[in-house]
Amino acid sequence: MLFNSIDFAIFLPIIFILYWSLKNKDLKYQNILLLIASYFFYSCWSWKFLFLLVFSTGLDYFTGLKIADADTKKAKRFWFWLSISVNLGFLGVFKYYNFFADSFAEALELLGVHVSPWTLSIILPVGISFYTFHGLSYVIDIYKNRIEPEKNFINYSVFVSFFPLLVAGPIERATHLLPQIKKKRTFDYTKAADGLRQILWGLFMKIVIANNCAKFADMIFDNSADYNGSTHILGAVFFTIQIYCDFSGYSNIALGTARLFGIELLRNFSFPYFSRDIAEFWRRWHISLSTWFRDYLYIPLGGSKGGTWKKIRNTFIIFLVSGFWHGANWTFIIWGLLNALYIMPSILFKTNRNNLDTVAQGRLFPSLKEIFSIVITFCLTVFAWIFFRAESVSDAWRYLSKIFSASTFSAPQISISTLGFVTVVLPILFFIIEWIGREEQHALAKLGLKWPRAIRYTLYYVIILSIFWFGGEEQQFIYFQF
């Protein structure tokens, strides 16, 4: 069930009404309803993989209790590593087995040994990377004595499978979400209204901006041999806009939906394309994943403590793992490697904490220095996204070879009239609105709240009409494949 579908438009109001209509807003029954709704939501993708979600949930719930009750360190380690091994084992089989099998065969080919690898004909269960990381963080926190295990299975199951975040995040922590699930919730009109605005903006990002940019990004990337260098640059920029509006759009819908049920999820994006350096970009892009790797990988490896070599090593490890988390392809690993190289100067010169505030905070316009920094950071990001989008490393090199050729200095082979209003003017208006709202949780958080009601609601209606007018066919969110 897609957020941008008629099915979800019917599903959400029904669950919302039932949820707040329960007698005395009983917490127990609210959570049971959320769990049933979440399992139904997931079953709409493939009921066959629902057992995997339930098994993973039960495994971490059970091992969490065993870790806490263990009398010896040996027993504690046993239950901890059982959970970690099984979770990563499932992830490895479904997501990475074929990659390793093919890569091993290719390595043997270089040595003159021909083998035919045995691969699995299976599809990747949607959301497995996300709910696996929910469970891993829960078990690790118990093992490190940061939290007590949750004894109510329903509560824990809702934490893992809460439907707004189930298939594409944000990646939640038990320390943040479980207390909200266990606490009685009352309807808050202000939060619900803001949630609706966030859902509206998320739908606009996905349906109007991302989906329409995707048409030209796909056309250029899939037929790159037919276009010159300047058109390739255009395609990379379209994909850069697409992936942000697609994934941030999903996150906005997820966070807004959760607020309708009185729950606050972790923020996942904070206007990353207004970043002044790569370190700031990664504090603003896919925040829940970045902080997950920071807390559960970077810091345990030693973080920034120790000598320069350890800082470099740890930084490369988390970016390479982050790239690999996104998919079983060398393109993702190179994407991670590029970002590690980008951030390295700020690590070495200790400038990675320079831009902690919002750009041009309290001002309408940025300085020339800020504009220059934003443009440079954006261009580096666009370059890295080429590897992220390419089907293979060889495809990425061919794409880049066109960009670094003389044809880049000729006019793009797609005219402005062909691109049209929706892929030229609307993205510009979109980034203007994002810039105005960059100090808030989302672009529409406070935009127009002080305007006369008629004008404010006109803005909302225009956004709604644009969603229906430019919507077209339903398109899956990019991050469902991860």
What would your notes on this structure say?
- The protein has 482 residues and is mostly helical.
- It folds into two domains: 6-186, no CATH class; 190-276 and 355-481, no CATH class.
- Helices cover 67% and strands 0% of the residues.
- It has helices spanning 6-21, 27-46, 50-69, 73-110, 128-143, 153-161, 174-182, 189-222, 229-260, 278-284, 287-298, 308-326, 330-348, 368-389, 393-403, 416-436, 453-470.
- α1 packs antiparallel against α2 and α8 packs antiparallel against α9.
- The longest helix is centred in the first third of the chain and has 38 residues, at 73-110.
- The model has no long low-confidence stretch (mean pLDDT 91).
Assign the structural class, choosing from mainly alpha, mainly beta, alpha/beta, alpha+beta, or little secondary structure.
Answer: mainly alpha
| Strand element count | 0
Mean pLDDT: 91
Amount of helix: 55-70%
Secondary-structure element sequence?
A: HHHHHHHHHHHHHHHHH
Number of domains: 2
Strand content: under 5%
Mind describing the biggest β-sheet?
none
Shape type: globular
Tally the helices: what do you get? 17
Radius of gyration over C-alpha positions, nearest whole angstrom:
23 Å
Note poorly predicted spans. Answer: none
